[in-house]
Design goal:
3 helices
Length: about 110
């Protein structure tokens, strides 16, 4: 993973993590473009990846609204994966989506 852009590494790691869960996860070609469609689409999720060189991670409301809208059109669960300056990777999603997915039922 040397010489790769940090955002690209984050996308690859996130994709691999989803595949570990049995998701058929793929990076979306040209996902950074205006069109959107999230960075990663899998069986159940549409994920936007945000790589930051800051200590604090914040979820931008406009980005959240955008991934929610895209995910609902594709019948996927929206999520945002952020990486901070310490290379900690944190996934953000609605609590009810998390519980429903883990339980396999609507919450």
């Amino acid at each position: 993973q040397m010489n790769k852009e940090p955002w690209k590494v984050l996308q690859e790691v996130t994709c691999a993590a989803l595949n570990e869960l049995g998701e058929d996860a793929r990076e979306t070609p040209g996902s950074g473009s205006v069109r959107g469609n999230g960075d990663i689409k899998s069986t159940n999720f549409l994920v936007e990846c945000k790589q930051r060189t800051k200590k604090n991670i914040t979820i931008d409301q406009n980005q959240w609204n955008k991934i929610k809208k895209e995910a609902s059109l594709l019948d996927r669960i929206p999520a945002i994966v952020c990486e901070n300056e310490s290379k900690e990777r944190i996934i953000s999603m609605k609590l009810e989506d998390f519980v429903s997915h883990v339980n396999g039922t609507r919450w």
